[in-house]
Amino acid sequence: MDSLNLHIKKSIRDKVCNPLVISRDISFSHNIFVDDILLSAMLCRALWDCLQSVLGKFHKATGLCINGDKSSFFMKDINSEIAAYLTLLFNIKAAPIHEGLKYIGFHLKPVEYTSVDWLWIHERFIKRIASWEFKSLSLVGRFILTQTILVQLLVYWAHLFYIPTKTI
User: Fold this and answer.
1) What distance in Å separates the CA atoms of residue 88 and residue 113, rounded to the nearest whole number?
2) Residue 143 Cα to chain centre, angstroms
3) CA-CA distance, 85 to 105, in Å (whole number)?
4) Residue spans of alpha helices (H) in 14-151
5) DSSP single-letter state for residue 97
């Protein structure tokens, strides 16, 4: 994955590929975490062909390729001609961006999060507590388990995102 990261950076440095420009000083081209990759691109066929070339070289070198079942490309308004081209080029499906996307287990959205978007954290708490149900724990043991597991889970997500008070 480091080689893919370096190859994308080299393509950008050599001006073969262009990152997504967010503002004058901020641009975004990709994010790689273990084997999860988030690529960004503008509506530009030359850029898509560049990304396909980079991914093709990576595939030849490593044997790794895009998993079409787990991958999607996201667009504000899905144009059927563009969607067909990208589906053919990358072998992945199209999805509207307003629904958000899941990256590294978290649902990313282009709009503000609501308490409904955080229901998954409640489910995760319930699942953790249910696994402790049949353990013989004292009141102190339950407190320590709650403090170390549940509170830390909430603290972890709260340091990344604003969690509505209703959810907390």
Assistant:
1) 33
2) 33
3) 28
4) 45-62, 80-90, 119-132, 139-145
5) G
